[in-house]
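Whether sequence alone determines local backbone shape is best considered at the level of individual chains. When preparing material for the folding task, we compiled for one chain both its residues and its backbone structure tokens. No coordinates are needed to read the tokens, only the vocabulary itself. For completeness, the protein is quoted in full, as a sequence line and a line of structure tokens:
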Amino acid sequence: MCNCRKELETALAEHYARKNPGISNVQIELQGYGFSIVDNTMVMIGCMPYKVQAVHPKKDGGHSEKRKTGFMHFKHCPFCGDLYLPAKTQPEAATPEPAHAG
């Protein structure tokens, strides 16, 4: 797993401190991360909330507007592309089927 989150938080704090002389105790925390349990291992992965709104048909012929919210979880770091999940949880590459003589 990468260290992009920590590296970016550190770089942002340093940048903010340079741009604002005289400040102290700068703390930066990137938002959009959450915990996920994979194979009994808790990992911190990137996530993004979403909202969906749509008009659904009703059984009586009318229509009803419905709204829903949820979260998308990323499999890869959006900054470097490394996989978030532990290596043991990655699916093995598929073995190609042998070609049959025609």
Summary: The beta strands are 33-38, 41-57, 63-73. The chain has a mean pLDDT of 85. The CA atoms of residues 9 and 30 lie 7 Å apart. The chain has one domain: 4-20+31-86.
